[in-house]
Every structure is written in C-alpha cells, then in structure tokens.
Amino acid sequence: MDPRTLNQRYSTGAIVEWIGSLREPPRRREGLPYLTEEERATLDRLRSFQRQLLVDIAPSAKYVVGDREVRRSTDFRRARHPLPADVVRKRFMSEMREQVTLAALPLEGVLPGDEARRRILRLRSEVSSAERTRRANPADAIADELFLSFLAWLADRGDKPWFGEYYWKAEDDFFVSSLGEPIWPYLPWPAPKVIFGVVLGAFVVGSGGSMEGIAVQPAVRALEDLLWGEGIAVTQEWVASLVFAGGSFR
Amino acid sequence: MGAIFNVVTFNENEASAVEDLFDDLVNSGRGLVLRSGSDSIKFPDIGKVVYTLRHHPLSSQGNVVAATALAQLFSEMAESEWRDRSYFIFYGCAGTTDQSVKNSVFLVGSVTYASLGTVDLFQKPALENPDACAIPEKVTLKNKWLVHTDPREVDPLPQVGFPLVLGTGAMDLCAVTGLPQAQTVATDKVIKVGLCANPPTPMLSGPPHRVYSKDDWSYRQALDCIKSFNTAPLLIDMESYGIGRIAKALALQQRTVILRVVTDALADHTGSDTYQRACLRGARNSIMAVVMALIERGRMASNGP
User: Fold this and answer.
1) How far apart are CA B154 and CA B141, in angstroms?
2) Are residues A17 and A83 in the same domain?
3) pTM over cut 0.90
4) Domain co-membership, A26 together with A102
5) Which of A236, B17, B163, B271 could, after both became Cys, cross-link B284 (CB 3.0–4.6 A)?
6) B25, B296, B304: residue with CB nearest A15
C-alpha cells in the first residue's frame, strides 16, 4: 500500500477516533464486525420464538439425528403452551415480524460489502457456537438453520446480492460442517419448511407493504433451493399462498 | 484483560518511525493515549480493558538476531498472564526487485531463506603470488536448500508462512487492513543484484513439486526462481526467515506479523539514509492498522456467547 493511500485510510485522526470509539457504547461503532448487545438480544429473542414455533406448530414431528429418533411429547407441549394453536401462531407471527425487522436492521444500512460480510460471519459464528446445544436438541438445530436460511433469503432480495452468493457457496459449511452431517434430510417434513415459507411471507408482506409482485420470485427461488430433492413442485401460486398466509397475520 | 502489542524494530530509522508514531498518538490522542514508560503507550477500552503497545528497538539485524529477540520476548512472558494476550509486530525496511513498489508497505505472507552457499575465489592464486586477497570472491547459493534437486541430497529448507496474512489463520489481515501481501526472501547479506528475468528451468515441473538439476546458483538465479513461485511482490530482507521459523517452533504464528516498507530497489541502491527514514516514517501508521484489526478480532471473540 502506498503511503498516500495508507495515510488516507489510517490517518492519525482516524486512528485516534477509533481509539476513542473503544470507550463508547458499541452502538456508535457502525460498520465494525461485531454484534451490539441490542442486536444480540434481538437475535436471541428471534431464536427463542423460532423454537417456540417448532414446539407449537409441529406437534407430531419426529426429529431424527443420526440414528437417534426424538419424539416431542404432546403433554409437554400443552403444558408449556395452553393457548389454542391459532392464538399462539398469531402471537408468534406478530412478534416474529417485529423481531425479524429488528434483526434485519444491521444488514439494511450502507455497510460496504466486506464489512457486511464480516457481520454475517459473526452471525454465523454465533450460530455455530451453539453446536453443543444443537447436538442435544434437534429443535434448536432446525431453528438455527431456519434462521440462517431466512437471513440468507433476506439479504438475497437484490440489495445485498453478495450475501446470497456467499451463503449458497458456503452451504456445505453451514449444513454439513457445523453439525458433522447434512441437516436437511432430517427435517421433519413438512412443518419447518412450511413455517419457513410462512415466516418468509410474513416478512415479505410486512416489509414491502404490498404482496403484489414483490419478492415472490426470490421467494420461489429460495424455496426451490430449500425443497430441492423433496419431490415438491414449488409454484408461484404455492408461494403466494404462503405469502398471503404470512401476511394475513400482519 | 487487554493485549500487549510488542513492536520490534531493527535499525535506528525503523525505531525512529515507531517513536514518532507513539508521539503522534499521545499528542493527538485527546488524553485517550497515555505514555507507559519510555517505550510504551497504552489506551483503554470501555471498561477495564487496556491495550499496550511496547516498542523493542533491537539496533541490530539478521535472521538470528530477530529469531532470538522473538524467543526472548516470549520466554520473558513465560510466567506472565500476558503471554496469551501478546502479539509481535516486526516493523522493518526491505529491498525489492520491482521499482514500482518502492515506498509501499506490505504484510509478509511467506518467506524463503536464501543464504546457504559457497564463497570461493574467481580464480586460483598464481603460484608466484600466493596472496589471494586481491582476487575477487564469488558467492553462490546451493540450490538444494531452496528447491528439490536431482540428485537428491536433502530436502530444501521449507518456506515459512504467516497464517494471519495468508488468510489461513484466525483472520485475514490483508483483507481486513487493506495492506497487500508480499513474499520475501531472507538473506544475511545486502543484495545489490536484481532479477535477470530468466528463472532456472526445472528438470521436472511436478507434481508434487519442481525438480531442478543440483547446482550452485547465483543470487539472481535464486531470486528469479523464487519470484516464479507466485505472483505476490518479491521483497528481500534479513530477518523474516528467522522470525518465521522461531514463531513456528514456539507456536506463535497466529500472533506474529511482519510489516515491511520497501526502501530500496536491489539493482539501484541510490536511496539515502534520509530516504529510508522518510519511507519508514510515512508508513508508520500501518502498525496501527494491524493493531486495530487484531483488537477488533479479539473483541469479536470475547463478545461471543
């Protein structure tokens, strides 16, 4: 790096500014590869709701990890969530839309590609760090993968094409390395995938304000990728119905 | 909590640049950057985390001296809680085979050692005048230490890589800082010959590796050959191999970084001491570029769940 470029990028003033920022609350330090406490709390809440959704809406699901099969107890589910399913679902969707919007905020700024990518790596490492939990609790694994899928789709809507590319290229890393084996074959079809579609739809409608034409094509593509090999034909109508289902909770 | 960044320099000009950097930061730091003894500065993070930059001016050169310095710094920390929170940043000048990169600063990604060879007379002394002092000496390198040769006697000395710069370690410093990567040749002499743009031809091009006819090479041939290994700019210095080998032996590769400022072109050593000083001073903020990247990475790690 020539001295002119170096001293433009790392001027003494900029360095001192950075040193000063170390003493400020993290929120002020835009563009740096870290999660603020607020963002972390948002993501934690989001994950928590995803797990809750799996418990509430996929009551008969069989979760298989390796050669171990886990069946969720109906009694346990009822004990935790005595409300009627549609009420729970409605409450969840409302909350989810808010949480997802909050979670998306860091990605929606004007971060240069590299910095945003670093932020995504950070998100990824957050999820990877829960590996022990994943092994013990398949529902956690599924919730995390849904979360990642959602973030990928979110960033792949067109305004962040780099992230979509990164995500799909890194698919093996996400889905194989972190768990040691592929996860998609173990998903209890169809509940989580439909849930994903509903969540996706909720966000599409929730963020766009109108479902006509917006993001249906990206959603089709995302679901085609998601459902590849499942023998399910993903049609625009099918996705649109998910979008509508999601949007109806708006 | 916090970290210590040990900044090591070899000559007076490099040391002066680091001192200037420290002065700049203290004088412009609005009280955020404080002197901590004559060779150190420190600045606090939010909370009780303190980062310290400590300058170690060696005032001597060479692979052995640099390696010893790293080993000594590390051993002095052996019983200290700081041992696991220390980084070693070597800041020094370098020569180049490419005039266009003069005055630029690079991160050293890999280094090859080119020094083991033979010193001989160009001609045998005459019988009537056995005093050979007037006869020029010829210095060559034994290529078996640089590349695989046929016949094979030994394995060549391995090239040493720096994971933080190559992007194979915990982070990719080049990507994060924007500082470009260079490959270096470490020698123990001042090299004043450039490339001849005619690298030796291998007998076999591999895989698994090129094989050359066992031979004595001139420095120009050696540089040509090493230059052909990859496309990164080729720099010549006198310390990186010693640093790299000892860092590897002490498992410090993830905490060792070498910054090189190009102050000389090999075939044109017209640069004055003043010019070298100016180049090193002009690139001094690159040290902070590395420090900032390492601190951010540390904060990310400690921020984890």
Assistant:
1) 15
2) no
3) no
4) no
5) B17
6) B25
**Do A49 and A96 belong to one domain?**
yes
- Cα separation, B163 vs B297, in Å, equals 15
- Output the CA–CA distances (angstroms, integers) from residue A178 to A57, A145, A171, B104, B219, in the order listed: 26, 10, 10, 40, 48
Contact A12 B24 (CB under 8 A): yes
Shared domain check, A6 and A114? no
- Cβ <8 Å between B305 and A126: yes
Instruction: Judge whether B204 and B297 are in contact, CB under 8 Å.
Output: no
Domain around B87:
2-302
Contact in structure between A100 and A203 (CB atoms under 8 Å) = yes
Instruction: Clarify whether residues A108 and A187 are in a common domain.
Output: yes
Domain interval for residue A81: 34-247
pLDDT in tens, A118-168: 544 454 444 444 443 433 444 444 444 444 444 444 444 333 332 222 222
pLDDT of residue A75: 29
**Same domain, residue pair A76 and A169:** yes
pLDDT of residue B100: 86
CB contact under 8 A, B304 and A129: yes
Span B145-176, pLDDT tens digits = 988 888 888 888 888 989 888 877 677 888 88
| Contact residues for A188 (Cβ-Cβ < 8 A; gap 6+) | A58, A61, A62, A63, A64
CA distance B278 to chain A (A): 10
Mutate: best of B53, B260, B275, B299, partner A, most A CBs <10 A? B299
Per the structure, the count of domains in chain B is 1
Asked whether the beta carbons of residue A23 and residue B32 sit closer than 8 angstroms, the reply is yes
Distance CA B89, CA B105 (A): 14
Q: How close A22 gets to chain B, by Cα (Å)?
A: 5
Which residues of A fall within a CB distance of 8 Å from B173?
none
Q: How many domains are contained in chain A?
A: 2
pLDDT of residue B285: 94
Inter-chain CB proximity A22 and B45 less than 8 Å = yes
